[in-house]
Amino acid sequence: MLFEQKTAAPDSSSAQKAAVTMAAYRIKSQDILQIRNLQNVKYIVDEAPVSNSTTSGGSNGATTGQTFQVDDDGTVALPVIGHVAVAGLTRAEAAKVIEGLYRKSLLKDPIIELKIVNLKVTLLGEIKGQGNYPLTKDRTTLVEMIGAAGGLTDKANETNIQIIRGDQANPQVAVINLRNIQSINDPRAVLQNGDIIYIAQNKRAVRNDNLQNISVISQPVLLLLNTALIIFTLSHR
């Protein structure tokens, strides 16, 4: 049922508004950065990590890199090079800055990989895997995230996928129609940190649920009427 329509691209005004908000995420205070030097898979530097850094957990620390939290002043404390200002930078910009500092002071030809590991979206409704999912790359699409969550349920209304974003005072809702092949190119479907994705039920599922609710409500009433009828019949014999 998905992507069966070949026309009806998103209207230009919505696309233009979405394009403004599609800029790469910029690092903020309290963000958690996962950093490693690809030239040395064990540590970010060529020595064991200092005590004030936090590994990413267990034996995986050797392969996934260490994690460092951005302080309130917008800097992140890294081994050897100390505090580095990263707030306001994109992931790629911060990686380049850190790479340059390590090249200048310690490492030969470092290749720094940097991920922002606290970014996430929330999936609710008719999807097989509800919950919070991390945004591990710069441009994660709605279709990719639905796939990561196991896909839609049989009750899902694939024409009404709502992406709710923005602050609580001014939330914005984008409705994506996954029957439309153009939804693949819809800039609104590029997910942002904090997005809430809600998949509504289709009409048939809503109708079936309503019938079930009516049945649940009517059963006690019918039982009561049958009981009253039996009592009435027995009392008039």
TrEMBL record:
Domain Polysaccharide export protein N-terminal: 23-116
Keywords, ordered alphabetically: Signal
GO MF annotation terms: polysaccharide transmembrane transporter activity
Pfam families: Poly_export (PF02563), SLBB (PF10531)
InterPro entries: Poly_export, Poly_export_N, Soluble_ligand-bd
Domain Soluble ligand binding: 120-170
Name by which UniProt lists this protein: Polysaccharide export outer membrane protein
Organism: Mucilaginibacter lappiensis
